[in-house]
Amino acid sequence: MSEHSLAGRVALITGASRGLGKNIALALGGAGAELALVARDKEKLDETAAAVRAAGGTAEVFLADVSSEPQVLELERAVIARFGKVNILVNNAGINVRKPVVEFTLEEWRRVVDTNLTSVFLLCRSFVPHMKGYGYGRILNLTSMMSHVALPGRTAYAASKTGLLGFTRALALELAPDGITVVGISPGPYATEMNLPLIQNPEINQEFTSKLPVGRWGQVDEVGQLALYLCSEAAGFITGTDILMDGGWCAQ
Ligand SMILES: NC(=O)c1ccc[n+]([C@@H]2O[C@H](COP(=O)([O-])OP(=O)(O)OC[C@H]3O[C@@H](n4cnc5c(N)ncnc54)[C@H](OP(=O)(O)O)[C@@H]3O)[C@@H](O)[C@H]2O)c1
Q: Is 33 in the pocket of ligand 1 (CB under 6 A)?
């Protein structure tokens, strides 16, 4: 058995229908974890599940808007009915709305904060009780380089991701006695659907690439391997912090 084997573990991954979440699902599923895949787009989620199964893994699809309290409560009921426990919770679902603060509607502000931050509270409140008692647990929160630095037009996103890093630290202290680690993964710019408006604009694309010391955008398959390591026994001493995967952006 590989040192990163997750055989016998159940992992719930939000935002698994595409992008970084899909890649994390493939990495954890490939290491033997049984997966509960969560998002709203059934067709895309089924594609992720099919890819996990094609690689020999186990995956079930659960549709939920993670910003909705009733839907997260129903998700808890359905996932526990199917798997009986959760050992790994990956809070990956997220959105961005980019515009000057004076142009934000309250609905847009709330949508970003509810999806990126309040959802993580709802999921942790529901699933932490099902994670205790195993002497092992992992909560991975997709924070961001925007938990550390900012750009214009990102007030809601930066506020939600900075808040998520604070949540990560505080929850790590609460759960350390239970053997459950809580860690942020902070990507820099990755070439996913979230960043299509930036990637497809040649000027902005070039501006971002020139600001990245490694000279390129991140590729989605670089994130799953970090998630896999953080879920391993070897990473049990890493908690209450985040790991930047930003091509050196924040080092400048
Ligand atoms: N890409 C980057 O450069 C970057 C950088 C820093 C941080 N991050 C963070 O990494 C995470 C993944 O980003 P990504 O680039 O992979 O984004 P993406 O390609 O846009 O995917 C976002 C995922 O979140 C799901 N989602 C969004 N709102 C949801 C909701 N209300 N309920 C349930 N699922 C929801 C989407 O699924 P459905 O639409 O099917 O529901 C989708 O699976 C996000 O938290 C993001 O903030 C990304």
A: no
